[in-house]
Amino acid sequence: TDGAGVPTGTPLPDPPLVEAISEDPVLRNTKLIAEAWDCDGLNQVGAFPHYGGRWSEWNGKFRDVVRNFIKGTDGPWAGDFASAVCGSPNIYANSQPPENDWWGNNGGRQWRGGRGPSASINFVTAHDGFTLADVVSYNNKHNEANGEDNRDGEAHNNSWNCGEEGPSGKWEVNLPNQPDWSDTSRLVAFTLSDGKGGSLYVAFNTSHMPRLLRLPAWAGRVWQPLVDTSKVAPYDFLAADGVLSAADVAAARRSLAMWTTDHTYPVLPWSCIVLVSAPEDPASTNMIRSVPICGR
């Protein structure tokens, strides 16, 4: 520093203190972990002076990739997520730093590459920023209560409030006889009966989110799928009509018995379903998972 506490130097490519810690015989069997960034913007992730792999690093990029992928952010997150769960080889195995990595292209270049997954400390929450509950409860930070006018704390949280800002006691399960007619509702479901025991259950989901529906439960009867537009043809229409045999239809319905025997059914985004009420068959609980009924 200049004597008044103002930094005047640059990050050292071979910091003596880090080297001394790395080579200290007393610490030989101690795991050393670096939080390889600072408040002024220096980020050494992937190129922290590790002295032969003695140091692992908090992988903040893993956190950001996982959060963005899980909440469905547009972008290259599927490929980035696959790389992250494989140990971030693009960060720790690859010796070529990204163009925007100032440290990796300068003093930290000698520390790039040649390391495996153990170099990465994977995490999605830490001691600062949002908690895991906050990540799925808030779009923005709310630190108003501490008198700092919400200026403190990390604002870059890659979070999603799942439709309602803040804590909510609402469950994403739609119950019978509890319709939601609000302006934000994107689901309509109803039953049709012929008065002789035969009934249809129809639901339309025009939301980008899947919905788990609680079906009417009638003694001795079970709901069987007839139409589900989210499925791959010909399994979007389960009827023995020359395309599917009766055995194909029965197998497809048995594969969904884990839902229907519990009187529930998932309706995927932008799809509709039609279910038929039928006498309960104990054999319908046998799971057959080889039928390709899941849409892509």
Automatic annotation (TrEMBL):
Compositional bias ranges of the Basic and acidic residues kind: 141-155
One matching Pfam family: ISOA1-3_C
Top-level taxon of the source organism: Eukaryota
Region: Disordered, residue numbers: 141-166
Domain Isoamylase 1-3-like C-terminal: 170-275
Name of this chain's protein: Isoamylase 1-3-like C-terminal domain-containing protein
Source organism: Volvox reticuliferus
